[in-house]
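Quick one: structure for this chain?
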Amino acid sequence: MRPATAPPPGGGAPAQSPQGAPVQGGPPPQGEAQGRPQGRPQQAPAKPRTLRAKVSALIASAPKWLPVLLTLEGLVMYILALKVPPGPLRGVNPADIDGLGLISALPTSAFIAILIMLVSFFVTVSQSTDRKFLLLFQIAAITFALHGAGALVAEEPRFPTAYIHAGFVEFIGRTGETAINIDARMGWPGFFALFAFVTKAAGISDMTTILQWTPLLSNLLYLLPFVLILRQVVATTRARWFAALLFVLVQWIGQDYFSPQGFTFALYLAFVAILLRWFGRVETRTKPVPPKGLRKWLGKLDAMTPGELANTGTFRADKLLMLMMLIALFVASVASHQITPFMMLGVVTAFLIFKRTTLTWALPFFLGLMVLAWISYMTVGFWASQIDTIFGGLGNILANLQSNTGDRIEGSDPAHALVLQARLGILAAILACAAAGLFRRLRRGVFDRSALILLCVPVLALGLQSYGGEIGLRIYMFALPGACLLAAYAFFPNLPADSADVREETVPLRKRNVRFNPELTKKISLVLAACFAIMFAMAFFLARYGNEKFERVTTGEVAALHYVYDHDKPSAKVLYLVPKEGPEVTPTLPWGERDVERVNFAEQALVFKDPSRIDNAVEKLKAQPRNSYLMVSRGQVSYLQLNEGFPEDWGERFRAALDKSPDLKKVLSNEDAALYTWKKFVRGTEIPEPNPYKGRGDPTTPWTPVGIAALAVTWVTLFSYEIIRLNGPTRAPRARKRLLFLAVPAFAIALAVIVERFIYIAQNN
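Got it. Here's what it folds into:
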């Protein structure tokens, strides 16, 4: 009930005319009535507002304009703090970056600006109204501050691996072809081909700006589907927007650079959003709960209030369009990345198992066969001679986990070890909050199946392979949507209001639970959420930019590699420094930006903590043909110092030892890099031609045409089955049964041919 409106001063109800209209102040004086036109009410002259009244009104309206002002102030302050020349409390000097990363060089004013933006967010979210556009703008501003810091302070686009991806784009745009024998990633060329088309159509020849701002743009792009996911859960406004903020604060994984992984993660989020929004399913349990045993507890969970909203009022045409969009997103992921399609497939399958989608089992079989077919037919040049690389890590959960945790902590210097420990600390904190959120929701009778699925399905990837020691990073990234949603429930677990007329959230507590003051509980929860947000924001810089000393790219390093590109006719080789030789040790330099088929980066030069020991590097360079270079760069030296314990002055002393070598000639030198080549070559030797990037053709088997035909039949029948099923579970049962009779044997034949190809080709290559 709402309180009755109080009567005006003077007592009594307002006087009314015979027709029921209220009379304002009684009859006017006779003289005034004669001089006024009939039918116009008398208007008293407006009194001018005093300055005190204006100030009071401005203060009273502060909740509307103050968050906007604070956000803009914090954003401008942050940009100035990072872009102005270094000085007291402002500016960033790259020379100050140490083992802690970028956080060691950030000025105090930058942290104050972030604190201001976080405070403005919580001021807005504490209000009773849902100011969607302002909250989205505030989260976008915080995203800019956190994920745009690298672009604001960097001389060149950061993260060395982004350059080789730009090289793939340049190669495809120049030749119109892919070449899996140059790099295995070319077997999944969807991302590279897309940007090759875009850059060529737009006339873009220099991708520096794209590489520079891709991390920020990627994280802003991630927000859109994630907010759509949050709209499909039964949660309060505070819980939803705090989950969105957490998603920004704990996304330190660093896979948002110019890469297929960063691109397909956005496709994954859109895939999940479509599943929940257009194909979500919520059914209340009607069966009685079993009396005892495990089935009793499962029955209780099934009888709880669903944590998702049901999909209602969607037209069949909309569902058909979204189904096609779902498949298109999956196809783009299959053609672009190795891991993302399995995450999508796992989510669809789990939604079907736990009855959270209206789709049928035809879809996961349709999508799963698509993944297997791409690997079998389109990437055969990669796996034909190294089948153990794909399947060797299956089931080795402990080994895969060790390669992602323990191996990354051992051997670091004390300062840099804090960075790795901070990453594990963020992981532990967000998982602990997620567990607390799940528990608090269960106590309120709510079971969030979808959030739990999004959290748990990526963990199954540990049983696949180590993925070059990075599968743990991928699991963390894909588990973030579910983890952030459940973590938000740790602070705001209540259900939302039943209607728009009731702004307060409902708290369905059990009778035996102690009921605290709801208003006090809300304030405490808000303060705790703000404290955790500030803690995550500060830890973000340590975790996200902790490798900045060797992940940042300098102008001198880029200039050294441009020298190689200018002299790579017809080919060239670059040797990079490694503490141990192995296939999983990649260059810590901006390699492969151009001419990926001409410049070879496959040779490693082993170095030691003693900088005078240059014999191995010299002999390795001597064994190479003409136009081969040994590169010593700031990034490589910093990596050796932070992760392998090399001395602080190792880089200068190593370059000095190379300068004294009578066998080497220095062809380029600057503050950040140096290039060395062999001083004397045998007269008459020529620079070798580059290895051909066109192979002899992929090996095949006699059954391959049969398998391709079976694939086509399977996909057509399963897709038709799913389209008919959109009309409802009882529509056209005979037609669906006939489609299944055709799809099942075709699926079996297609799968058998795929297995036969793996066995036959692997044995003969």
